Amino acid sequence: MKGLVWILVNINEANIMKHIFLFISLFSSYTLFASPFAKPSEASGILNLSIARPSANIFPVTIYAIDGDQTINRNKAIWLKPGVHTISVNSVIDLSNRSKSLLRKHRIKKEDKNELKITIEEGKTYYIGYDANANDPNEWRPVVWKVK
Prior knowledge:
The chain has one helix and eleven strands, in the order H-E-E-E-E-E-E-E-E-E-E-E. It is an alpha+beta fold.
């Protein structure tokens, strides 16, 4: 009886291991093919996030999601595969150069308008920032302020 239980337990463990291996294999191949990211050597466009224009009230952003999938916060440059992408950003708006009647600093939260749909073309660099030109913070939004 002990031998039969041992065989059943080992068979189940073997089946579980097969299923785990299959799941990991499928998941890793899916993420490799579904990823919006590209290597610098691949066909790609670049999102430049670190250059701001505070004098024009355009502030740097940090990307926290691409195409609805959360990513590690990125705040410098990102190589993306060509195509349409939706990026979600955070930013801290420093309004110290504005009228004292406005907030000095405003942190953009997930509830704010923080998504930008962008069509990436191979070989182009897109400068992304958060436009805080309007007096009403509800009108602030992420923008592509330069394409090179």
